[in-house]
Amino acid sequence: MLSFFSNLRISAKLLLSISLLALLSVFIASLGVMSLNSTTTTARNLADKDAEAIRLAGIINTAHNRNQQIWLLSVIEHDRPDFEAFMARIKETDATVDTAMTELERMAPQESQKIGELRSALDEYRRETAKIPPLWYAERLGDAEDVLQHDSKDAFEVADTTASAISESVAQRAQQSSVALRDQASSTTWTLILVAGIGLAVIFGLIFVVIRNQITGPLAAITERMGKLAHGDTSIEVAGNERKDEIGDMARAVVVFRDNARQQEADAIAKARADADQKMVVDTLGESLNAMSQGDLTVTIMRDFPEAYAEVRANYNKAVSSLRELLGAAMESTAAIQTGSQEIAAASEDLARRTESNAASLEETSAAVTQMDDRLKATAAAAQRTVERADGAIRVVSSGRNTADEAVQAMGRVSESAKGIDSVIEGLDKIAFQTRVLAMNAAVEAGRAGEAGRGFAVVADLVSALAMRAEEESKRARDQLTITQDDIVAAVDMVQKVDGALANISSDVGEVHALLNNIATDNQAQSTAITQVSAAIGTMDQSTQQNAAMVEETSAAARNLWGEVASLAERASKFNIGEEYAATASLVKAGQKAAPAASKATVKALETRAMTPAKPAEAKPASDYQSPVKPLPSPAANGAAADEDWTSF
């Protein structure tokens, strides 16, 4: 059993210990969860049933009291619809009570006796109150009120008291159940604590024994032997190297350290001999390198080195020879670079002048295109405003046509009214005629009456005269009405002609509107195209300015290159590389006096062009028309003819 633990890795031992702890934790947690689930389920069931029973008892009590209030209102009500509404509400409440009673019997079977008493009291109350509707319909309101106040009173009070008693009993039982559940939970908790304590004590004891015998004890022994080895004792013997765990690995590593220490003692003697040879080599190389640091590249090592360092001597001599050849070639290249840098500087200055000319032309072109873009935008805006005015004219014409239609309709109504007036005048004419006939009859009767009817005859004559005047006025009114109708017909014709003219105007304005829309669309398209052209020219101008900046940088780089080449030649001339490179060194020194000089004015102009963005040229407005857009600049119109032909560049 112990050999099995010895062959296990320390991580496996620790994992086994942790697994035991985990198993104990899982067992305790499972036991606790099962106990808590049982307690929680019991508590939830009791709480749900008791709470629901209390709620149902409250619903029954509330509904019962509400029925009593409705009955009290019904016995004093004299309106039949209201009484029938009260009866309907009582039926609804009774249905609610019946449903709650059924649920209460299911939720609180322990209270079956009290629930039975409650049901009996409710039935008795309903039987007594059922006498009230016949008495009310018989208009015996006093008897109905007496039934409510006396006959049903005992049943009402018994039901109310029983419902309250059920609620209190259920609440008391719920409290007792809660106390019992708390006691059960406390007992479960102590049981879990006891089991956890015993299990942890046993497992920690096992873990302590395993760690002490299999980990800490062997580690202490290995630590002791490593201390002796650190103090130089290479005769130690290491136990435990047959183990297959980390302690066995450490023991085998200590054995390797011991063997290495023994090997190091043997190597120290050989190292002393090698150090003497190395010092001789280093001193010789130091002397040669000192001469090289003074600029003498003709020094080579002639002294014999030990066999291990012979290759170092050969490589040093080869490196010195290669360095002499490299410096000679560098001097020759320096002379060629000096000539090339002078040519680059001259070409850069010429390119800078031509680039500046192109940049100025592009700036003027950009300003001209910008002016064209502004003019097209102003034209597009004016066309848009004209379209808006045309829209307003169309709306005005449409409003005029609507007004003309309303005028025609109004005149039609006036014509119809005139026809009605004509019938009224005809009626008045008939009345006047009948009045005149009656006046003639009255005059005849007055003549028959003799002297006594003279006054009546005078009145009859006056009435006859008034009737004749009424007939004449009716005729004049009819004539005037006829003239009015003719005028209305003529006015209707004129309004219709005006409507036709407005329709023609509307059609013409619509065509103008379409043309203006086309103009506005074309202007916008042209403006967009000009904007794109302006952007392209701006990009070209920016690129030209960047080219100018790069030309200036190229010129500066050429001057810097010449300076660096001169500095390189000056430094290379300090080395002694032999007689074969003496002529090249003299040529380089002579070339240092011919430095290229770029034009300061050209460089300044290039820097200004590279740092300054293009500006639109100013233009004078025309004298006859003040346009919102500035006119094209004159330099942009003929700039192409004045500039130098770029193809020559």
UniProtKB/TrEMBL annotation:
Residues 609-649 are annotated as: Disordered. InterPro entries: HAMP_dom, HlyB_4HB_MCP, MCP_chemotaxis, MCPsignal_dom. GO terms for molecular function: transmembrane signaling receptor activity. It comes from the Bacteria. Residues 213-266, 282-328 form the HAMP domain. GO terms for cellular component: plasma membrane. One of its GO terms (biological process) is signal transduction. Residues 333-562 form the Methyl-accepting transducer domain. Keywords: Chemotaxis, Membrane, Transducer, Transmembrane, Transmembrane helix. The chain crosses the membrane at residues 190-211. The keyword Cell inner membrane does not apply. Belongs to the methyl-accepting chemotaxis (MCP) protein family. This is HAMP domain-containing protein. It comes from Stakelama tenebrarum.
